[in-house]
Write a structure and sequence with these properties.
With 190 residues, this protein is α+β, with helices and mostly antiparallel strands. The chain has a single domain, classed as lipopolysaccharide transport protein A fold (Sandwich). The protein has a six-stranded antiparallel β-barrel with strand order 2-3-6-7-5-4. Strand 4 and strand 5 form a beta hairpin. The chain is elongated. Pfam families: LptC (PF06835). GO terms for molecular function: lipopolysaccharide transmembrane transporter activity. This is LPS export ABC transporter protein LptC.
């Protein structure tokens, strides 16, 4: 009987000790998710009391390393000193890397250069504010007054007033409604 009690006690101690040592050796899990979540955000960035950037998003997540994510889309306007909008950007998703000061937008990206009345469409675009530059290696479509430019890759200044398509694929000339009406009228008269 003593043997059975001794064996049972040793077995119970071994089981209890093995459980507690596993818990001691186990490190706590590090949380890597967002530390701040904001909804329905309207932000104004200014320099020397002059608004430079306006940003609107439905949801903003901020992480421990100060990176930010905008999982439900983003809309950004760049403003001139006189308060006029010089360009705008809209995308389905955005991620900002604080360490590199780099914005990555993706999903139905639309950039409008309002001074030149031009529009860029792509699926992914990077914005480097320190370099005042936009770039991508993805397919791009740029609509200007009267033509559409197609290609892969793009480098542009951040207000989209100047750009280079890295691998141009083609140009399509657009007819205005007036030209279509004139052409229609002349063919009907024949």
């Amino acid at each position: 009987m003593k043997k059975l009690f001794l064996i049972s006690s040793m077995l119970a101690i071994a089981v209890l000790y093995s459980c507690s040592s596993k818990d001691k050796d186990k490190l706590p899990e590090v949380y890597e998710g967002p530390i701040l979540e904001s909804t329905d955000v309207d932000l104004y960035y200014s320099d020397s009391a002059i608004v430079k950037i306006y940003m609107k998003t439905a949801k903003m997540l901020q992480y421990m390393n100060q990176d930010q994510e905008f999982p439900d889309g983003i809309y950004i306007e760049q403003w001139e000193k006189d308060g006029t909008v010089s360009s705008s950007l809209k995308a389905n998703h955005c991620y900002y890397e604080k360490e590199n000061n780099l914005w990555k937008v993706s999903g139905d990206v639309v950039v409008k250069g309002l001074q030149n009345d031009e529009q860029l469409n792509t699926e992914e675009l990077y914005w480097a504010p320190d370099e005042k530059k936009l770039y991508t290696d993805k397919f791009v479509r740029i609509e200007t007054d009267g033509e559409v430019l197609l290609g892969n890759g793009l480098e542009a200044n951040q207000d989209f007033s100047s750009y280079v398509i890295l691998e141009p694929k083609g140009t399509v000339t657009l007819e205005s409604e007036d030209e279509e009406e004139i052409e229609k009228d002349t063919t009907e008269a024949k």
